[in-house]
Design brief:
Enzyme class: transferase
Keywords: Cytoplasm, Methyltransferase, S-adenosyl-L-methionine, Transferase, tRNA processing
Number of strands: 7
Structural class: alpha/beta
Shape: globular
Order of helices and strands: EHEHEHEEEHEH
Strand order of the largest sheet: 3-2-1-6-4-7-5
Organism: Paucilactobacillus wasatchensis
GO biological process, one term: wobble position ribose methylation
CATH topology: Alpha/beta knot
Family: Belongs to the class IV-like SAM-binding methyltransferase superfamily. RNA methyltransferase TrmH family. TrmL subfamily.
CATH architecture: 3-Layer(aba) Sandwich
Helix content: 25-40%
Radius of gyration: 16 Å
CATH class: Alpha Beta
Amino acid sequence: MTNHIVLFEPLMPANTGNIARTCAGTDTKLHLIKPLGFSVDDKHMKRAGLDYWDKVDITYHENLPEFINSVPDISKLFIVSKFANQDYSSPDYSAASGDYYFLLGKETTGLPEPFMRQYPDNAIRIPQDDTKIRALNLSNSAAIVIYEVLRQQNFLHLQRVHKYENDKLK
């Protein structure tokens, strides 16, 4: 079982760098759908991901249709959107086989509306007060979702406790 975070046309290198760090720390694959709003060689991107960028399994896609065609089971594609009716914690992500994909939209405009209309049953929402903010930060949203998935998978392959030499919890 593999989890995937997918970013549609990300614009901000700091967000993508933070998400890459989360992916590295959770053994989650990262997919970037072009065009990107930055160069992966950009100094801000390097600053955001310098220590672990090479430890992230990244796949680049030329466009949204190319990415969709690469998903083996569309029922395991979840579209993160504030317009969804279903909370992100509602689906069962614990199935022992298959990959789960979590698609997040561009920071400024989200995902194209015609695309969203094609997959209404795949959409999940992180509850928020829409009267006070337009949207949650992209990297925070990715972290919230992937950690719920990992919780349901009993944090598969992740070390739960670190033992430090001077730690009383040995």
